[in-house]
Amino acid sequence: MSTIGEYVKRERKRAGLTQEEFALRAGLGLRFVRELEQGKETVRLDKVNQALRMFGMEAVPGEIDRSNFDD
Description:
The protein is an all-alpha fold. The chain has one domain: 434 Repressor (Amino-terminal Domain). It is 52% helix and 0% strand. It contains four helices and no strands. Helix 2 packs across helix 3 (30-37). The radius of gyration is 13 Å and the shape is elongated. The two termini are 22 Å apart.
């Protein structure tokens, strides 16, 4: 999830928006935006997608590449 949070933070800043401005425009709570950008792992996927839609993106289910994990 931290990768998504990092993406949202980078794109939000690129758009010149504060967290509060972004939250208002995306229809999200400020607390959610803060937690997302900080990499909280228990955020709701529907709200993550609501944030990503601001940049024309969407998170979708997919298989994990297990080759990146130590056995």
